[in-house]
Amino acid sequence: MSVVVTGATGHLGRLVVEGLLDAGVDVVAGGRRTERMADLDARGARVVELDYDRPATLADALAGADTLMLVSGSEVGRRVAQHGAVIDAARAAGVRRVVYTSAPHADTSDLVLAPEHKATEELLAASGLVTTVLRNNWYTENYVQALQQAAATGEIVGSVGQGRVASATRADLAAGAVAVLTGDGHDGRTYELTGDHAWTHDELAAAATQVLGRPVTYRDVTPDEQRAGLLAAGLDEGTAGFVVALDQNTAAGALGDATDTLRTLLGRPTTPLVDGLAAAWSATA
């Protein structure tokens, strides 16, 4: 079996490539900057340029592949076209199966990031390819910025209320993807992948207290107060609006549905919040 992994220069894609190499799989690691994958090449992956915006690189990377691990792109607003180009290239290359990283409940959610994932899932459904959709919850590592704020001020500030987040670490989600790529019975399935526990921001503050070794509290503010604070901190209007919208999605429960699916794929409990935060914080040192 040959697996092409897109976004192999990113955090999640790299972890998937490493996990597949550990499992003895023939891996093609694709990314825009091949020089950033020299270590993967040294480990035995075939490293190729793969640029969502350059169709020739897609055709070359996918030639002869059985399976495509399509790690969703990072360019919000451009992802549907980019993903569509990869799906078209996969069909033309004779790829049999696509595994795609989507968003929680992408087909029904009001999550600000969901529409592009929903559209991509629809493209996959219409493609005729065998697909598995991995609807990854929020990465625990996304809260390193909150830890940085807490380290400086003793506070985490947001407008999520008591909304819960069933986050998981990138390492756990990558290991789940490897289990799907190397296992049987996953064709045509859609998995909601989360951590075992959906936590509140008060629990996030308690975890931050342990990681940082100083008292941390969560201060809940109104969306307007949050937006004003973000603008005062130097964020542009668009970015501030996105952060506020995400907090309102969280408050409404868009990230709070914890399942045991990832735990089942891993064959073990998922990494607890405090342990995931500690590892991510250490990596920034």
Automatic annotation (TrEMBL):
It comes from the Bacteria. Residues 7-182 form the NAD(P)-binding domain. Pfam families: NAD_binding_10. This is NAD(P)-dependent oxidoreductase.
